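Q: Got one fold?
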Amino acid sequence: MIPPRQIKISLITAPEFNLEYLWWLSILFMVLAALYFIGIFLIRNRITSNSGRTKDKKIEFSPMISEFLFYEDSNSKEEKMNYLNLKIQIRELIKDNFDRSVLTEVLQDLRKDLSGQSQTVLIELYKDLGLHNDAFEKLASRRWQIISSGILELTTMEVMASYGLIIKFINHRQGTVRKQAEIAVV
C-alpha cells in the first residue's frame, strides 16, 4: 500500500507553457488597451469640440435670424442695406455643410417658439436659403434615421412640395419612418 502523500495525480498538474508567449500576449493586450483609451479620448474631444463649435455658431446665427424676423419693408435705406448685407453674409456662411446644419437646427428650434407672421417669415427664409434641398437629400439616404430626420424637417418647415415624396415612405419597412411619414401626411 502506498501512502496518500506519495500519490501523483497527472490530471491536476499544469501543462507546460512557454513564458515568452505569455509576455508577448501581455504586451499585446497592453497595447490594445492603450489604443482603446486613446481612441475614447480622441472621440470624446471631437464631440466636445463639435458641441462647442455648434454653440458658437448658434450664437452667431441668432442675431442674424432675429434681424430677418423683425425686418419691415418701410425701414430706412440704411436698414435695407444692412438687411441685404446680412442676407449675403448668411449665404456665404451656409456654403459650409456644418454651418448649414447648424442654421437648419436654429430655424427648427425657432419654428417651435414662433407663430403668426414671424413663423411665416421664418419658413420663407428657410426655403429662400435652399435649406429644404438638404432635407430632400436626406430622403434619398439608405439609413432610416436620416430619412426620418428629413421627413421631420420638411414637415416642421411646412415644405408643401415634399408631401409627394413623403407619401412613398408610408409603407417603409422601418416602423419609425412609417410613423413619421403618416404623421407628416396627416
User: Anything to note?
Assistant: Residues 63 and 120 are 18 Å apart (CA to CA). The mean pLDDT is 85.
